[in-house]
Design a protein that fits this description.
heterodimer, A: mainly alpha, MetI-like fold, two-stranded antiparallel ribbon, 2 strands, 1% strand, B: alpha+beta, Rossmann fold, OB fold (Dihydrolipoamide Acetyltransferase, E2P), 2 domains, 6-stranded mixed sheet, 8 helices, 33% strand
């Protein structure tokens, strides 16, 4: 009986917080737009029965997504931005994590604190702060003009560059922490053994350090990639009109067009796209746990 | 050949493989190695023995190239290697933690060093198989390190460090993680492998029994200095200081003052209530010079009556008996309060043992049984 409850509770959680909302979104995606509140038909009516209700649902909105090239362009563009910013985050995050793991052990809690500290401020405020830094009259341009490196202000805000800066800044801790935890556990005598067996410092890094921090790299990459793919706040605040991301499209469909069915269809496809990396991420975590045993 | 004793250190024409010349290593203000000079010869099984913090691990890490000496030179086969990085030395090390690569199979672990040398594939295959055969690991080649036992991991670590056929193999507490029985078996296996491959081995250990078993010569270290270098039997029978005598095995140290009383013979006044002891010593002592008589418990005989012809005989009462199975150590309190340990082999069943607690007994030993040491 106890066992039954132990298994049952997580399933209730999953059903209540994922499956039911997903079913609702899917139902809206299969409906048609209407000028009403809420703005779609059909609505479930006990008098007509479930069969008549289901008969009115169709895949029209999904077909529409394939016809208008805005959507798949937005998906592709989101994917590209997510992949590229994950890569940037990895390239910046790995050396930071490496330096943290090699730092004297009495410094490490402080360094860890410094990585986590930004979370104590609201995410939105931090993105707004970046607007202040990156704008034409912003701190960065003022500084560069003052030093004389540039004579005209750089246009960064409202471009893809600003989006990358925002994403890398926001998600860097999610990359650093799993890599740090993998590197911190790395036994330094393994590096010495590699050098003893004929490796230079660099080849010891490639042949021992990188493979042994692989799980951290994979975990960090997914932790950045998955939320970035559907990111809405950063592209809409820092990006320009040419920044095409699926989160932004979704928002516009919902709130500007009030086309809930199409917006829901976009959301369903986004979710399906994310299932693949989420499954891969889970598998990586599982493997890591097995390796630790 | 079979009759010649392996003792290159006694042959002045023999050139050492390794030579530490006045090497000093400091970490900040701490001196780990203090002006140390030592020679290690080819095919030797050399043990560095000492308590933790005595500098033995630093010495080994300098040989491997992980530490550079602050002063002095380290010669390997006539070349100063003090500044050569570890990957360019023909020295390999077996780590205390074994340091096996967890992401590689046993086979790939052993092949790791060979691949770095860009050795042709078929030669790598051959060499790895040879190493697997030598360490009886053929069955485990495809497994990962976490899938084998501690003793097998130890052998993988040995095979990996031997694979490149180094001039010198360093072993850092190689058997520390094994249980006692396996450790003893492995000690003999190590000696066997050392003999087969003809590699020079330097072993670091804090276990004196291990050092005595495997090594051709033992260096006893303390506070960054080598106190004595000698063959195991000499270290045991002829320690050069109270420190070495006390560090190796069980010993009775009797302090006293020496009076010369004939050819290499001295009378040792050690207690007002008892007669002086007699001991022979090649090292001369002046009249009334302070000395220590170091005598091993197994060289002290224990009898119920006073033996007639004993050079040294003292009477006492049994305070304690440590029964070790094969032997028993008796702690005998003398009339002057000193406690002397005497060990006898238990050749008879315990029920027929001659002595028990509170028995009055005689302890006796010959003039050559002990070693007379300056303080």
């Amino acid at each position: 009986m106890q066992r039954f409850f132990l298994v049952f509770i997580p399933y209730i959680w999953l059903v209540a917080l994922f499956l039911i909302p997903f079913a609702m979104v899917l139902k809206i995606a299969l409906s048609d737009i209407a000028i009403a509140i809420p703005p779609y038909v059909p609505k479930f009516d006990w008098a007509e029965g479930i069969r008549a209700f289901l008969a009115q649902l169709d895949l029209e909105n999904f077909i529409w997504l394939t016809q208008d090239d805005l959507y798949w362009k937005a998906y592709i563009s989101s994917l590209r931005i997510a992949v590229f910013s994950t890569l940037c985050t990895l390239l910046i995050g790995y050396p930071i994590a490496y330096a943290m793991a090699r730092a004297p052990s009495e410094w490490r809690p402080t360094l860890m604190m410094l990585v986590i500290l930004p979370f104590w401020t609201s995410f939105l405020i931090r993105v707004y702060a970046w607007m202040g830094i990156l704008s034409n009259e912003g701190i960065l341009n003022q500084f560069l003009l003052w030093t004389g490196v540039i004579s005209d202000p750089l246009v960064i805000l409202n471009t893809n560059t600003a989006v990358y800066i925002g994403i890398v800044y926001t998600y860097l801790p999610f990359m650093i922490l799993p890599i740090y935890s993998a590197l911190e556990r790395l036994d330094t005598s393994l590096i010495e053994a590699a050098e003893d067996l004929g490796c230079s410092r660099i080849s010891a890094f490639w042949l021992v350090t990188i493979p042994l921090s692989k799980t951290g790299i994979i975990a960090g990459s997914f932790l950045v990639f998955i939320p970035t793919l559907g990111e809405f706040v950063i592209p809409s605040l820092l990006g320009g009109s040419d920044t095409l991301m699926i989160g932004k499209v979704l928002w516009e469909e919902f709130f500007s067009n009030r086309d809930w069915p199409v917006a829901s269809a976009v959301a369903v496809i986004l979710l399906l796209l994310l299932v693949v990396p989420i499954v891969l991420f889970q598998r990586n975590q599982q493997k890591q746990q097995e390796a630790e045993q | 050949m079979s009759n010649t004793v392996f003792a290159p250190w006694d042959d002045p024409s023999e050139r050492p493989l390794i030579k530490f010349q006045n090497v000093t290593k400091r970490f900040g203000t701490f001196t780990a190695i203090d002006d140390l000079t030592v020679e290690i010869f080819e095919r030797e099984f050399f043990a560095l023995l000492g308590p933790s913090g005595c500098g033995k691990t630093t010495l080994m890490r300098m040989l491997a190239g992980f530490e550079t000496p602050t002063e002095g030179a380290i010669d390997l086969a006539g070349q100063n290697i003090a500044m050569v990085p570890p990957n360019l030395r023909s020295v390999n090390m077996m780590f205390q933690s074994y340091a096996l690569f967890p992401h590689l199979s046993i086979w790939d672990n052993i092949a790791f060093g060979l691949r770095r040398e860009r050795m042709p594939k078929d030669q790598i295959n051959e060499r790895v198989s040879e190493m697997l055969r030598l360490t009886h690991l053929e069955k485990f080649a495809r497994r990962k390190p976490h899938q084998i036992s501690g003793g097998q991991r130890q052998r993988v670590a040995l095979a990996r460090s031997l694979a490149k056929a180094p001039k010198l193999l360093l072993l850092d507490e190689p058997l520390g993680a094994l249980d006692k029985k396996l450790r003893q078996e492995t000690q003999f296996e190590l000696m066997d492998i050392q003999e087969k491959t003809g590699t020079t081995f330097v072993i670091v250990t804090h276990d004196q029994e291990e050092a005595m078993t495997v090594a051709s010569r033992v260096a006893v270290m303390d506070h960054g200095k080598i106190i004595q270098i000698a063959t195991p039997d000499k270290i045991y029978e002829e320690p050069n200081s109270v420190y070495v005598a006390d560090f190796i095995g069980d010993v009775n140290i009797i302090p006293g003052t020496a009076t010369p009383s004939g050819d290499d013979t001295f009378a040792i006044q050690w207690s007002e209530e008892t007669a002086p002891l007699t001991a022979k010593s090649a090292i001369p002592f002046a009249l009334d010079e302070t000395c220590h008589l170091a005598i091993r418990p197994e060289k002290v005989a224990i009898t119920a009556d006073k033996p007639d012809d004993a050079t040294n005989a003292v009477q006492g009462k049994i305070l304690d008996i440590a029964y070790l199975g094969n032997s028993s150590t008796y702690h005998v309190e003398l009339t002057n309060g000193a406690v002397i340990k005497a060990q006898t082999a238990n050749t008879r069943r315990i029920s027929r043992r001659a002595f028990t607690w509170e028995d009055t007994v005689w302890l006796s030993w010959t003039a050559t049984a002990g070693v007379l040491l300056a303080s």
